[in-house]
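tool_log.txt
---
The assistant was asked to compare two proteins side by side. It first ran the structure predictor on the initial sequence, then on the second. Raw inputs and outputs are pasted verbatim so the downstream comparison step can read them without reformatting.
(1)
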Amino acid sequence: MFETLRGEFPRRALLIAPFALAGAAVLAMRRGGDGDATAPVEPGEEVTIVEFDDMGRSQGEARRKKVVRTAGEWRKQLSGEQYYVTRLQGTDVAFSGTYFQLHRAGLFRCICCANAVFRSDTKFDSGTGWPSFWEPIAKQNVKTSMDISLGMSRDEVHCTECDAHLGHVFDDGPRPTGLRYCMNSASLEFVKA
């Protein structure tokens, strides 16, 4: 019996080794993509956002220095899931996030920098398992970029103030905009009105 197991082990190892090496390479690239966690960070450029108090009242436009931190600083501030979603462009598992079923009055802020990004009165049940909104709280507070990962082209949504990955926007939402801002719960912090 031991002779059979000994003979099968190398074959199994040969079959498993390429997958293990590929996984290790992906992890190394992810870690390498973070940059040096202790490297000095240059001050951010100035951006214009609209400030909101916790009741959702606009405080007007403001010029702010973009929030820039090292990977190590972000890791200290955020949970593992929040870091994965916001800094590594990850995605919550559908129907698992904190906010997809939340229906209270309030606003949603970026988990990384507290920039106001969405109001609860624009939130709707999209049936996707992620919190969905038909428009941001202010167009200045979010920005989009092209995401061609996973073999498809999508519009990725980022926080203007700190570049956190929030989610994606699609053109299959309700009126009045026809948009569906499909956000990750891990990228948001809800503030009750």
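(2)
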Amino acid sequence: MIRRLFFILLQRLYLLKSRTLPSQGRIYMFHNVNDDADTYSITKEHFEEWIGSLLKDRKIVDIDTLVREKDPKNVVITFDDVYESVYRNAFPVLKEKGIPYYLFLCNEYLDQEKYVTSDMVREMLSDSKAIVGSHNYRHELSRFKETEQMKEELDRSKDELEKELSVKIDSFAFPYGSMYACSKENIETARKRFRYVFMTYAVPYHESCGNIIPRINMNDSTFRKEMK
């Protein structure tokens, strides 16, 4: 418990410092796009409204463009776990607008109840600007895993997703993704296998981040703050 509190405090200090740096783009993280009132959900109506507001004065891009251009108006959209609601409620909007977006798939969730199927992902890949990334083989904390176990799970996730979906994967998002959830060793192990490693530090991107990508969790509460 004391160790966890230490990392929570450390992350809060990091967030405070990072918010003083100039924004060079923002990365947003979604989970469910439905009417559940929880910290991992945004309604379909609010999702559509938010996308519309972004397109008025910002540019929705892929992570390569955001890192390269360092433009505060650039935005990246990502989905973790990838619930079926993403396919039903978000995919049609993203397809219509021609917007790039990331699907971070966890192997143990793919083709399971409430989550997208392989066929749904293939459709999204063929009919929109979807980009697939790994969300590890199992949706677990990484901090307490031995390095060899971490390597095995990362490689298995990447290899199986690439084979199943006929894609090349160069991005990874840690489950949970906080300073407590991921050790420095975990992050370095992931960096050796992926071009970009996505976390859940709720700050804009800035040059010092490099290829460790912070993300802002989007739900109905965050939506209201962002729309002010």
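---
observation on (2): The first strand starts at residue 26 and ends at 30. Helices lie at 2-18, 44-57, 63-69, 84-97, 118-127, 147-165, 184-191, 220-226.
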